[in-house]
What we know:
By secondary structure, the protein is an alpha/beta fold. The chain has helices at residues 53-60, 109-119, 134-145, 151-158, 185-198, 219-228, 267-278, 280-294, 328-343, 376-383, and strands at 2-16, 23-25, 47-48, 51-52, 66-69, 93-95, 101-103, 122-127, 169-172, 208-215, 244-251, 301-309, 348-354, 364-366, 372-374, 391-399, 402-403, 407-408, 410-417, 420-427, 434-441, 445-453, 473-474, 477-480, 483-488, 492-500. The strands form 6 sheets. The protein has a 10-stranded mixed sheet, with helices on one face. It has an 8-stranded parallel barrel with strand order 2-5-8-9-10-11-12-13, surrounded by 6 helices. A two-stranded antiparallel ribbon has the order 3-4. Strand 17 (402-403) and strand 18 (407-408) form a beta hairpin. Residues 305-492 form the Alpha-L-arabinofuranosidase C-terminal domain.
Amino acid sequence: MTTARAVIDLDVPGEVISRHLYGHFAEHLGRCIYGGFWVGEDSPIPNVRGIRSDVVEALRALGIPNLRWPGGCFADDYHWRDGIGPRESRPTMVNTHWGDVVENNHFGTHEFMDLCDLLGADAYVNGNVGSGTVREMSEWVEYLTRDGDSPMARLRRENGRDEPWKVPFWGIGNEAWGCGGNMTAQQYALEARRYATYCRNHGGNELYRIAAGASDDDTAWTRALMESLGCLTCGSNPTPLFQGVSFHYYSHAGAGINTESATSFTEEEFYGTMRKALEVERVIRRHEAVMDSYDPDRKVGLILDEWGTWWNVEPGTNPGFLFQQNTVRDALVAAVHFDAFHRHAGRLKMANIAQTLNVLQAMILTDDSGAMVLTPTYHVFEMNRGHHDATALAAHVLQTPTAAGDVPGLSVSASTRDDGALVSLSNLSIDQALHVQVDLRGRGASVRRARVLTGADAAAHNTPEAPDAVAPVELDASLQNGVLSVTLPPHSFATVELDLA
C-alpha cells in the first residue's frame, strides 16, 4: 500500500461551484430519447404522459440541474415546427447523423418541456444554425417564452399550452466547425452575432445565449468568438451578445474516439484514459487564458456542453446508436473531470455529460423489457451532489505516488456549504490501495459519513442481472488532530461528508 497526503483549507473559500456543472445532454440519438426517456403513453412500462417514470425518479435523485436538447449534430437538422401539434399529424424525418433511421417526431418541444418539468431541471435548448434560419430560431424562442398576444404565443396556445415556459439556456448551433455547417471560426462568429441578436428576451425570460465553440483545445476558435464581441471593458457596463462560449472534449485510451472497447482494456489503456481525462484541466486553462485577455471581468462563461468517454459500441448493436457499457474506469473519468471543474468554477459555468441515457457515458441504461440499470458514472454524480452551488475550498495534493510514470495516484477536491463540507477523493491506481491523509486546516471538523465506489476490477459494470456490482458502500474514515485518514481500494472514488465547527 502506498500513501498520499493532501491539505484542505476549510477557511479559504473560493468560487461557487454552479450546480450546472453537473448538467446532462439528451440527443435524438440511438435509444436516448425513443426507448429511453420516451416510451409513449400506451407503453406497459410505467410512464407519465409517455415519459418513463423510473428514469425520471432516478434522475431527480441526482438533482439534475439542466438538460440539453435536441442535440448535438441532430440539432442542426431539426426543424422545431415538425415536433408540435397532434402527434399523429407530425411529419417524419430521417436522422442522417445517427443510424439513418426514420423518426416520427412524437417527442418534440412540448414533450421536452414536460420532461424538464418532471425532472425539476432547467431547459437548455439548442437551436438550428446549420440548416435553419434566423427567423426559425427567433420564432422558436418566441413560441416557448412569450406571453400575451403574438403569432407564436397564439400557436403555442393552439397546441394546448397557455402559459409560456422559462427557458434559461439557448444554444446557437452546435459544432459549427463540423456537423453544424463546416464553417470557419470567423464565419461562425458573424453568424453567432446575427442569431444572438434575434434570440430575444421575452417578458421575464432572460436568455443565456451560448455560442458553439471549439473542439478540444482549439483556442483560435475561442479567440475568434471573443474578438467578435468587441470591447467588453469599454463603457459603463457593456452587455455581450452571447453570454457563454462552449467547447467539447471527449476521453479515450489513446487511439481516438470510437476505436476502443468499453469493457476489455489493458493496464496501459486504463492509464491512457486517465491521462486523457486529466488533460481536460489543461484544455480549460487554455480557453480561460484566451477569454481572460478579452474579458477580465468574466462576463462570458465557458461551457463544456459535451464531455465523457467515447468507446466502440457494444457488439451486436447499431453502430450509429453509440450504445456502450459503463465501467469503474468511466466513473473515474467523471470524478477527475469534476475535480477540475471545481477548481475552475470562476469561469466554467456549465458542463453537460454526453449522454444521459443509453448513449456514450450514460447515467442510466434501459431496455424495452422495462429493465433499468444505474451506471457507475451515475453513482459519481449522486455522491458528488453536495458540491452543487457550494463554495469551492482550496485543496492541494502535497504527496502522491504516480502510476504509469505520470498519472497521479490521487485526485481531490472539496467544497463547503451550511457548516458542512464535502471531500471527493479518487485513487487512480489500477492495482494499488492508497492510504490518504488529509490535513484539514482552519476549522474544526468531524466525519458525518464516508462512502466509496469501486468494483472487482476497473472493468466492472452493472447489468440487469447484477445491477449493484458497482455501487457505493460505507467507508471507514477517521479524523484525529485535524487529520482525516481513509484507505482507498484500487481504482476507486470516495466522498467524505464533514460537519464543521
